[in-house]
Amino acid sequence: MASAGKGIFRNVRGFFQKPAVKKVVDTFFPDPMDKFKFEDVLWDFKNKAALEEWTLITDDQFGGKSTAEFVQSPGGRAIFKGNISTELPPATDVKYTGMCSIRAQPKWDWMGDVVTNDISDFDGIQMRLRGDGRTYAFNIQTHSIREDDIHQTFIHTRGGPLWEIVRIPFTKFVLTNAGYLQDHQMDFPRIRTVGFTLADHNMGPFHLEIDYIKMVMFMYKPKHFQYHYNRDF
Amino acid sequence: MAYGADMCEGEKNMRCVWSLTTLARRISNDPFAAAPCRLVTPRPKYHMPLQRQISFSKHLKAELKEQSEKADERDRLARIRAEDAARNKIIHLKVRPSEVKAAKTALSKHVASFERAASIKKSKESFFGVIDAFISRDRSRRGHMEFLKTAMVYMEEFGVEKDVEAYNRLLDIFPRGRYDNRTLFDAIWAKKHPQAELALEILTQMEDYWLLPNEDTYDILFEIFGHASQPLQKCRRLIYWYHKLEEMFPNPYPKKLPESDTEISKLALTRMTKDEQIIVVYKDNTNNESQEYLVGAQTKAQKKLLERYNSPKPLYVEGPFFIWVRRLQRYFFTLRTDAEWDKENEEGNIVAICMSHANASEDVLRMWITQLQRDNPTLANISIIFNLSQTPQ
């Protein structure tokens, strides 16, 4: 054992390098990084029970004709599929239709408080998808004072038979209230529910297969923010 | 005053004064103006001394009487209305007003001018011509709301719905100096000008067509509605968010999609995976009139996988599956391995993808397989099952 230092320091270092002493020190002063998780799975759709905790809404609530379902796929994952119809209901003031959405139900603990996931250790959301080339909105409902607030971002699915892994940093989410983009953007410390929305004014069938949704820690390098430079506005 | 002939003088004067005060009261619409001239002045209600109420029966009776009177009144009104309805043949639909769909535009007098211009030529110039004619005809811009609403309907017909300049010309019609914010409170609590709402509607239509407002739009809105007004705020928001939301798209299609099926298929195939692909056009329908086309793609990893495929299990050709290329629905077929071959992947691995139309026949797909055999010699030894469904999945 090559220990640096001279005289008394050598003896001190040697003392702390003894395995028994090391063990005692580790129990009393544990390294905080030992328990650090680089990912936290929110939803894993391989188990069927996760499916039942999700809820579905389509625009037939206000007279639309879209249909959708959120069921288990033949491959053992969850699939969100259906048909979007932009047909306007007769004799109403409705301007746009064609919306289907799924969302995880919020959970409550025994005290009656909403269970939230702390995101402060993570950089973004990662999920494994198989889409159909459409653009879906990914929604995060936070533990906010205003209940209508959701943080949204877009998932531009590739389409095709191959699975894709989508990583969305939390910086890419925009705050909307009741569908309106807000001037004052905020960040969010906790996640209450997550969900997907499809409303792209595009009549026809759709399907989105989801494997898992998890929060991940990755060193985010904002290479996509090139557009901040060399622009008129 | 013929009727005052047999009256005494004093009474006549009294009556004259009375009629004058009545007239004055009617003009001023004040019930107490005529009071001093009346012989018995009625005391106002609120001067009555409060009576201790021992029982409510009196009041209840009064209330009941009032109610019965009201009911009578209601019956009478209903009867009158029924008679009116019978006479005028009005049909009362059981539809709430909120459920009635508002007509897009009432047929306005400006429809004629747009129709006339459309009959001559449907172009940007003729659309601007109608606007110029309106401005020169009425310098005070009377009825500009009606004109704008009509113009918004006719934009698509003239083919200017994706032109920022056309929107600028429309916004330019609003008269200056009438709808701007003059005080701080105007800016905080936005005035509900219908004109401002119409300007917001025009800007919303721009947003729907994914148009970026330019400096002219900003200046026009600034001149008309002023600083911190709702339309200008909306314009600022459009400009701020436009690029931010546009560049969220990591692998966009070109702004204008190519027209030929094979080119669109190539775009869709390149977008399916980020790996490098070998894309081959097996059958092209751009020059001949037949519907059939076939574009195949295979990555290097898929090719390697097929090389080391050593299993008695067959391969499957499956489809058609749909994919959306912006607003176009296209179809693809896959060649995949058996699910049991790869334990990790429960669905089987994709070995090759091809794009064709929805009801591609088995012969076309057979041609694809024979062409694949040229690139992948191992494929000749593997049996292939065609598992095609009638409806796209």
From TrEMBL, chain A:
The keyword Mitochondrion applies. Coiled coil: none annotated. Pfam families: CIA30 (PF08547). It is found in: Mitochondrion. Residues 43-210 form the NADH:ubiquinone oxidoreductase intermediate-associated protein domain. InterPro entries: Galactose-bd-like_sf (IPR008979), NADH-UbQ_OxRdtase-assoc_prot30 (IPR013857), NDUFAF1 (IPR039131). GO terms for biological process: mitochondrial electron transport, NADH to ubiquinone; mitochondrial respiratory chain complex I assembly. GO terms for molecular function: unfolded protein binding. Belongs to the CIA30 family. PANTHER family: COMPLEX I INTERMEDIATE-ASSOCIATED PROTEIN 30, COMPLEX I INTERMEDIATE-ASSOCIATED PROTEIN 30, MITOCHONDRIAL. This is Complex I intermediate-associated protein 30. It comes from Acropora cervicornis. The lineage of its organism: Eukaryota, Metazoa, Cnidaria, Anthozoa, Hexacorallia.
UniProtKB/TrEMBL annotation, chain B:
Residues 299-389 form the ECSIT C-terminal domain. GO terms for biological process: cell surface receptor protein serine/threonine kinase signaling pathway; innate immune response. Keywords: Cytoplasm, Immunity, Innate immunity, Mitochondrion, Nucleus, Transit peptide. GO terms for cellular component: mitochondrion; nucleus. InterPro entries: ECIST_C, ECSIT, ECSIT_N, TPR-like_helical_dom_sf. It is found in: Cytoplasm; Mitochondrion; Nucleus. Belongs to the ECSIT family. This is Evolutionarily conserved signaling intermediate in Toll pathway, mitochondrial.
